[in-house]
Specification:
Layout (H helix, E strand, L loop, with lengths): L1 E7 L2 H14 L5 E6 L5 H11 L14 E6 L2 E7 L6 H6 L11 E5 L13 E7 L6 E7 L2 H13 L4 E4 L1
Parallel strand pairs: 2-5, 2-6, 4-5
Antiparallel strand pairs: 1-7, 1-8, 3-4, 6-7
Helix pairs in contact: 1-2, 1-4
Bound molecules: adenosine-5'-triphosphate (ATP) and magnesium ion.
């Protein structure tokens, strides 16, 4: 498990981080995306999906809860759990259909308190501060494959980052 801390100065950098992660991501990889409303979670997913060839507008799944994509021979579920509050609600939305070990999951607002989500490979937290426009990002790798993906993605993007073990 390793922590990477970096600053994303504008939307393009958030899109680029998403794109770089997508280019080296493998099937079955699970991302948790933490951060307040408007921090940039969906923006990162937009960069991710576009890098895999999606050309239309990437909708936020805030209301639909799940958006499914089949791109470059990969199945991707983009999930937003903001509006859900219990394990029953998660079951009713059919979340278990998404956990098939071979799809990539991008989960905004992972609700850890309901305790029925699979563990992530990569957990990303995006923060922003009053009167500032940049985003501070903390990426925690929670598996070996997660670490390889993040290392490669950050190197490829010329991001400046700090590693904390
Ligand atoms: N690094 C950045 N610097 C400045 N602005 C950014 C950066 N990354 C994204 N943004 C902007 O911040 C906003 C983020 O909106 P987005 O929908 O991605 O947030 P979100 O975290 O998914 O919110 P929600 O919790 O409501 O789903 C967008 O307007 C985007 O252009
Ligand atoms: Mg969002």
């Amino acid at each position: 498990m390793r922590q990477y801390v970096l600053i994303l100065y504008n939307e393009s950098q958030t899109l680029l981080l998403g794109a770089n992660l997508a280019k080296v991501c493998v099937l079955g990889c699970i991302f948790y995306l933490h951060g307040n409303i408007g921090s940039g979670k969906t923006t990162l997913c937009r960069g991710f999906l576009k890098a895999l060839g999606y050309t239309k507008y990437v909708k936020s799944p805030t209301y639909t809860l799940v958006e499914f994509y089949s791109l470059s021979n990969k199945h991707i579920y983009h999930i937003d759990l903001y509006r859900l509050h219990s394990k029953d609600e998660l079951i009713n939305m059919g979340i278990y259909d998404c956990f098939d070990n071979k799809s990539i999951l991008l989960i905004e607002w992972p609700k850890l308190e309901v305790d029925c989500l699979p563990n992530p490979d990569i957990s990303i937290s995006i923060d922003y501060y009053k009167h500032e426009t940049y985003r501070q990002v903390v990426i925690v790798t929670c598996s070996n494959i997660g670490q390889i993906i993040v290392n490669t993605a950050l190197h490829a993007g010329y991001f400046e980052y700090e590693v904390k073990k």
